[in-house]
Amino acid sequence: MAHIIAKTMTNKVPYFFWVVSIIGGLLLSSLVGCGSGRQSAPFSGSAASATPGVRPIKPATAKQRRAFEAAKASAQTGRETEALRAFQDFVQRYPSSALTDQALMALGSLSLKLDQPVQAQGYYQHLTQHFPQSPLAPEAHLKLGIVLHDLRQYDASINSLRLALGTLVLPQQRAQVHYYTGLNMRQLQRYVDAFEAFNRAVETSSDAALIQDAQRAMDTLIQHQLTPDDLHQLANRYAAAPQGAQILLRLAQHYREVSDIAGELDALQQLVNTYPEHPELPALMTRLTVLQSALTTDTSTLGILLPLSGEGELAGQRVLWGIKLALDSIRAAQPGLDIKLQIRDTQGDSAIASSALRSLVTEEHVVAVIGPLFSQVATDLAPLTEELGVPVISPYARNSAFPFLSPYAFRNSLTDEDQARFLADYAVRVLNMTRFAVLYPDEPYGESLKDTFIEHVINLEGKVVAVSAYPPDDKNFGQAIKRLGGIDDESLSDLLAGSGTKTTLANTKPYEAIFLPGYFDRVGLIAPELAFYNITNVQLLGTDGWNSEELIVIGENFVEDAIFVDGFFTDALAPSVETFVEQFISRYEERPTLIAAQGYDTLRLLVQLLQSGADSRFALRDGLLQLRDFPGVTGLTSLDQDGNAVKTPYLLSVKNGRIIQLN
Question: What residues does the Leucine-binding protein domain cover (predicted)?
Answer without folding.
Answer: 301-657
